[in-house]
Please model this.
Amino acid sequence: MKPTLKWLSLVGVMALYTMSAFAATKYVITNDDIFNANSATIYSIGKNGMLTVVTSIATGGSGMGGGDFASGRVSVLRSKTQNCAYIGDAWGNNLARPGAVAAINMDTLALAGRFLGFPLDSGAFVGVGLAESRNGKFLFAAFTESSTLVTYKQLAGCKLKLVSEITAIGASRGAIDGMKVTPDSKAVVVGYEDGSVGSYHINANTGALNLISMELVPDGAALAGVDITADGKWALFGAVSSGSEVEVAPIKPDGSLGTIIGYMGVGKGSNSNNVWLSPDETLLYVSNNVSGQISAAPFNKTTGVIDTAHSCTSATLSGWHTSWKDLGAVVGGPTGTGSPLYAAEFSQTQASGIAIVNVKKPCSLTEATGSPVSDPNSNFLVTIGEDPPRPF
Model:
């Protein structure tokens, strides 16, 4: 008996519903950063922001076993142009050069490929940082031991093609500690561990990089994580600091940076390697690596001013110095304040965790019930990403 038109319609509706439900699934992605056999753990985001492990995907390379707190180093990058996530591997198999970038297809939750750097490229100092051009043409990888900045061309199906590289060091020969591509895809803005900042011009056709300028940070702060406003006018740098410090610089039309202004007291936490701007650009978040807290402050995207007087800081997150000891990168959702936020909790001696923190305006940060969620595949969790990503 042939199926009736009504039955066919029902099947079609159910298929559309299934595809829609799959497409609507949100994920958190980790770089487990494991020696010899690195992996990425994928969590689905459920009710109230809670996380459930979906799968673990072997990258085929080796992690650092710790790396650095800065989001630009041991990195997870969720593409803005393809349904792909990218994971930095410090080494290849058996802790040998070169390092690589592993690509994950977020439609199938499977490894799409592993793409080596040039023969001498290594992230064995503190990992591999990643940044993507918004136009979807190029992906850039900073290999921190070899101090090289590599250009890959992005291809269909999450594939990458190795294109070119340059040596990229700071004013005092420091490695890149964080980086991000400007929204117009014309420049890569970087912070170096030696207290300098710089930017590199991107050749629109080849992706080749050339240094535009390099400046010393006036107060000498070593800079780490980098973020850029949606209009490309302001660069924000997390600082390695005993307090909670963020540096802000205007981005000129040629991609160079203007006068750098430092803001101390962005909350009350200690150390501020990681920064992340809310999708509505009204709040700037800081991961306080050493005190195990998250801070936030109102941000004016027009003037680039951080309102430290009205900043706020979470309580010390659950399990601090009992089940974990250092707080890594912080990320959030693609709209509004980005709430809830997720932050990597580095342990070293046992399973790491992912903190879940709710945000309320004007400025309030509260750890969610059920936080943290364990990462059973890593003792060394430093960076995470979210799918879908923030639009800029």
